[in-house]
Amino acid sequence: MKPITSLLLIILLGLGLPATAQKLKLQEGDLSLLSAVKKMNVIYDYSSMAVGKFDREADYIAKKKGEYNKKESGKGDAWEQNWIEDRATRYQPQFEELFNKHGKIELGNYPQETYTMIVKTSFVEPGYNIAISRKNAEIDGEIWIVASNAPQSPLITISFDNAPGRSFGGYDYDTGFRIQEAYAALGKALAKYLK
Questions:
Q1: Tell me, what's the pLDDT at 19?
Q2: How far is residue 165's CA from residue 21's CA, in Å, rounded to a whole number?
Q3: Contact, 117 vs 142, CB < 8 A?
Q4: pLDDT digit string (tens) for 27-41?
Q5: Strands 137-147 and 150-165: what pairing?
Q6: Neighbours of 65 (CB within 10 A)
Q7: CA distances from 1 to 14, 15, 83, 178 (A)
Q8: What share of the chain in percent tops pLDDT 70?
Q9: Residue 171: partners with Cβ closer than 8 Å, 6 or more residues away
Q10: How far is the C-alpha of 153 from the C-alpha of 168, rounded, in Å?
């Protein structure tokens, strides 16, 4: 009976690791600046993003698009469109939903607010799931809090590393879903960090 109990404990601990593997670190600024903030604008920056083994997202897109189009005409074009559209339809809504649910500041499209949060993604590991083998998605980058009228000068900078993207049941065969879950994990963790 003891070996079974030990095995169950190891499995349960393993399930909890991805949730705690994420690292948030204050790089500059003072979080007390946000103590009275109730609402904040949020924007996203993917302009300097590496993907997987590629230093430039454009190289990753070109490779994947070419592979898919070679298999079936137009499939790569559709993949590229989904890759870009997933940002606005999946990643950003999940980040905001989890941040708003677990935090004290409401994020959204509020350009009139004093402060803006810029989510700057610098690296995406899309991961994979081919049933017999899997790798979780992960994202890295920085969160900038800026005065809305001075977006180039961060007042607060928080780095994030290894925000994990995975599903509980392991049915995350879709790249967009795995990355969406990484943004959800980041939103939740950041909201709690800022509390």
A1: 42
A2: 11
A3: no
A4: 999 999 999 999 999
A5: antiparallel
A6: 18
A7: 20, 22, 48, 36
A8: 82
A9: 129
A10: 39
Residue 17: the pLDDT is 39
- 3-state helix/strand/coil string of 131-150: CCCEECEEEEEEEEEEECCE
Q: Which domains can be identified in the chain, with CATH numbers?
A: 21-194 (3.40.50)
**Parallel, antiparallel or unpaired: strands 150-165 and 128-129:** unpaired
Give the amino acid at 90: R
- Which of 18, 19, 21, 24 is CA-nearest to residue 141? 24
Q: Which alpha helices (H) appear in 21-166, and where do they start and end? A: 57-71, 75-86, 92-102
Helix, strand or coil for residue 86? Answer: helix
Q: Report angle CA 6, 138, 68 to the nearest 5 degrees.
A: 115
pTM of the model: 0.84
Place 131 in a pLDDT band, splitting at 50, 70 and 90. Answer: low
